[in-house]
């Protein structure tokens, strides 16, 4: 009989904007005994996850929980729940993921207005306000960290602006949550989505979401408990039912409430991962974690610039957890990335759409955001460039990064 190989992946340094290296404590937690989803030991763990997630999101929202899906499913769950067919939604798009929001919202039957910008820039909040002034908008859906371009949209004022025009603000913080300070309540964000495989540093497979009472009220007016499990106290809402069963946040709210009303079978091992990843974040401290990402970003950028490489985009608005470099003359993206992976075991990312072939993206996220990874990556990029005949000043990059750490 044919024998099949045991899974034995090579160690990698994951410097992409996701997935990144999981904290070893997370991987260990995932190999624990399986619990049933209604075991009190497990439901206690769910409650703790919610408590820690509220700290991470910096919110008081009761509705703060996980959806068994990747981050895009988290976006789809919140948008499909909050936005009814015909609702007017404004999407300021400044990269690939902005267009993903419109792709999801089209399928919700939303009446979409796209504001578009050149990739590598962000919106002035006034531009968004100009459009909202026209009136009738139910919501603004926006990306915080646009991973495809490495740009980060300023959010502080946007919540206030949305409130002024009575529009909900729904924000994708998949790439930034856990790496950058995002006080959800203070910024007036009504619905917020994060993913596990980026700065939260667990494997891909769960989406963390939070939304306030305004959204929860809409969701509950769309609620219809499944026939097989409904009781006489389950009254149907008056708004159109949420079109997705699996991502029906009206029912997921019940599932994550003390009622634990049956819906799907919870991915309990993945929940161990989320719980442990959040616990690691609590242990490190939010501000300490943000400072770690910022310092490693500073060192990475200093090293890249010392090598003579150009960092892409409007540097005032660069995400600290993603850096895009313009591919220098004399080499192409696949060669640079391919050799870094083959010779050094370092993975970096390509890019999409108008930036394809022009930039490569380096992640600095979660457990991967470490001094040794930054120095190793800089050394590897330099070596690959020199090996391919690109003229770069040898030895400058790592030295510049080390200087940043010394001065910190
Ligand atoms: C990675 C990413 C997503 C998609 O996440 P998946 O887990 O691949 O579904 C969505 N939005 C942003 C900003 C991202 O960086």
Determine the structural class based on helices, strands and strand pairing: alpha/beta
Number of domains: 2
CATH superfamily of the largest domain: Type I PLP-dependent aspartate aminotransferase-like (Major domain)
Please compute the radius of gyration using only Cα atoms: 22 Å
Describe what you observe in this structure:
- This protein has 408 residues and is α/β, with parallel strands linked by helices.
- The chain folds into two domains: 22-281, Type I PLP-dependent aspartate aminotransferase-like (Major domain) (Aspartate Aminotransferase, domain 2, 3-Layer(aba) Sandwich); 286-407, Aspartate Aminotransferase, domain 1 (Alpha-Beta Complex).
- The protein contains 13 helices and 13 strands.
- The strands form four sheets. A seven-stranded mixed β-sheet has the order 2-10-9-8-5-3-4, with helices on both faces.
- The longest helix has 21 residues, at 286-306.
- The site of pyridoxal-5'-phosphate (PLP) has 13 residues, from helix 3.
- Residues 18, 70-72, 97, 143, 145, 147, 172, 174-175, 195, 204 line the site of pyridoxal-5'-phosphate.
